[in-house]
Design goal:
binds magnesium ion; binds adenosine-5'-diphosphate; alpha/beta; seven-stranded parallel sheet; elongated
Length: 413
C-alpha cells in the first residue's frame, strides 16, 4: 500500500489532473492495485471510471472493460483518449477490429472496451491469452443480477471468461444496487463478500467548521485541547509542518511531523507511531494520509485552505472512519486564496477553467452562511436537506445582517 500510493497520487495528477481522490476511490484503487476483486457501489458522478482507468495506466497489461452500450463505450473512449490513455473498443460496429487486436497483442492498450456477448466467443478468449491482462472491469454490474433494475442475460456470459483467468482481479461497478442486488452481483461474478465497497458522500459523524485564521498556533492549541484523540493537522508547506509540529509538541502533547522531505525511515516510523496511537497528532503536508488505515482519527484540521473542494473532502474524510463523532476544522486566510489564484496562472491553459471552478467552489464553501454539508454534498451531485445540524453554520447561525453581508459579497464577486 505504502509503496503503491505515492505512485497512485502521481498518476492521478499526471494522467487526470486531479489533486485528490474522491470518496471511496482511494480504497477501491488500493484494492485493485493489490489484485483484490471488488464491487464498488458509488453514486453517479462519483468517478467510477477512474477506479479502473488509473490502475489500467499503472499496471502492466490491459484492462478489459465490459460495458452494456456502445454509446457508453464511446463516451469513455473519448475522455480516456483526452487524458492520453491508450484505449480502444472491440465491438461488431468497429471496422478496425484487426488493428485493435494487433494493438492488444503488442501490449499497446491500457483499456479495451467490449460488450458482454463477446465474452463467450472462443476467439476472444484466445485473444486474451495472447497478452497480459491487468484487470477485468465490469461497468453497470447490476446488469448481471435479476434483482437489479436492468438485467441483461448477456452479463451471465462473463463468469466463465473471468474464471478462465483466475489470477486477474475483477472490479464490478454500479451506481444502483440495493442489498439483494449487491449480494447477487458478488456471487454471480465470484467476488468475495469482503470486497464490497459502498459510497455515499455524506459523512454525518464529521462536524464541519471553517474559521478565519487570526493566530494559527493559538487556534490549533485550542483545537488540541478540545480533542484529546488522534488527529491530523494539514499545513501547506514542509517548513510550516516542522514549525507547527515543534511549537505544538511544546504543549506536552505527542506531536510528530510528516512530509515528503523527511527521510523515508523517519516517515515510516512516524506513520506507524500515529497509526498505533490513541492521542497523537500528526502535523503533515498532503503527502500524509493516502492509503493509511486509521479508523479512529478524531479530528482533521487545516492550517490553510486545501487545494480544492475535492481535496478538502478527501482530507477531512480521513476523520471518523469508525463512525464516531469527529471534527473537521479549517482555518483560512484571504492570502491563501490570493496565492491559489496566483497558482492558477501557472496551470496549463486547458486545465485552468476547471481548476478555477474547483477553487471557486471552495471559496463558496468558506464564505457561505448556509449549511456547509449541504454545499459540499451538492458539489458531489447529491440533494441534501437544507440544514444538517452538525456544522458550524447550522449550530451557530450567524446574525442575519452578517449573512446578508456575505451574500452581497458573493453576488458582487
Ligand atoms: P460515474 O461513472 O461514477 O458516474 P465518472 O467516472 O463518469 O462517474 O466521473 C464523473 C466525473 O467526475 C468526471 O467528470 C470525472 O472526470 C470526475 N472525477 C472523477 N474522479 C475525480 C477526482 N478524483 N477529482 C475530481 N474529479 C473527478
Ligand atoms: Mg460511469
Amino acid at each position: 500500500l505504502d509503496t503503491a500510493f505515492p505512485d497512485a497520487r502521481t498518476a492521478l495528477h499526471d494522467t487526470f489532473g486531479f489533486s485528490a481522490f474522491r470518496g471511496v476511490q482511494e480504497q477501491v484503487v488500493a484494492r485493485v492495485l493489490h489484485g483484490q476483486s471488488t464491487l464498488a457501489v458509488m453514486p453517479t458522478g462519483a468517478g467510477k471510471s477512474l477506479t479502473y482507468q488509473l490502475p489500467a495506466v499503472m499496471l502492466r497489461g490491459t484492462c478489459i472493460v465490459v460495458s452494456p452500450l456502445i454509446a457508453l463505450m464511446h463516451d469513455q473512449l473519448r475522455s480516456a483518449s483526452a487524458n492520453g490513455i491508450r484505449a480502444a473498443t472491440l465491438t461488431s460496429a468497429d471496422s478496425d477490429r484487426m488493428a485493435t487486436m494487433d494493438a492488444f497483442r503488442a501490449g499497446e492498450l491500457d483499456l479495451l472496451y467490449i460488450a458482454p456477448e463477446r465474452a463467450s466467443q472462443p476467439h476472444f478468449r484466445e485473444l486474451l491469452s495472447s497478452a497480459p491482462i491487468a484487470l477485468f472491469a465490469i461497468d453497470e454490474a447490476h446488469c448481471v443480477s435479476e434483482w437489479g433494475h436492468d438485467f441483461r442475460p448477456d452479463y451471465r456470459l462473463l463468469r466463465p471468461l473471468l474464471d478462465a483467468f483466475p489470477d486477474v482481479p475483477r472490479l464490478a461497478l454500479t451506481a444502483t444496487a440495493d442489498r439483494h442486488t449487491r449480494a447477487d452481483i458478488l456471487s454471480q461474478l465470484g467476488i468475495p463478500e469482503d470486497g464490497l465497497i459502498v459510497a455515499g458522500f455524506d459523512r454525518p459523524n464529521i462536524r464541519y467548521a471553517i474559521r478565519p485564521r487570526d493566530n494559527a498556533l493559538r487556534q490549533l492549541k485550542g483545537i488540541l485541547q478540545e480533542h484529546p484523540g488522534p488527529g491530523v493537522i494539514y499545513a501547506p508547506t514542509r517548513a510550516k509542518v516542522e514549525q507547527l509540529a515543534e511549537a505544538l509538541a511544546a504543549t506536552g502533547r505527542r506531536v510528530l511531523p510528516y512530509h515528503a522531505g523527511l527521510d523515508p525511515a523517519v516517515r515510516a516510523r512516524n506513520q506507524a507511531a500515529f497509526v498505533a496511537s490513541e492521542d497523537m497528532v500528526m502535523v503533515a503536508t498532503v503527502a500524509f494520509g493516502m492509503g493509511i488505515d486509521k479508523p479512529d482519527v478524531r479530528f482533521v484540521a487545516h492550517a490553510g485552505v486545501p487545494k480544492s473542494i475535492e481535496a478538502y473532502y478527501q482530507e477531512t474524510g480521513r476523520a471518523g472512519r469508525d463512525g464516531d463523532p469527529s471534527m473537521a476544522v479549517m482555518l483560512w486566510g484571504a492570502d491563501d486564496f490570493a496565492r491559489a489564484r496566483q497558482r492558477l496562472t501557472e496551470v496549463d491553459e486547458h486545465r485552468r477553467a476547471s481548476e478555477r471552478q474547483r477553487l471557486d467552489a471552495l471559496a463558496a464553501l468558506v464564505e457561505t452562511a448556509q449549511c456547509r454539508r449541504a454545499i459540499l454534498l451538492r458539489h458531489f451531485g447529491e440533494h441534501p436537506p437544507e440544514t444538517c445540524g452538525n456544522c458550524d453554520n447550522c449550530l451557530e447561525p450567524v446574525a442575519v445582517t452578517d449573512a446578508t453581508e456575505v451574500a452581497r459579497k458573493l453576488l458582487s464577486a
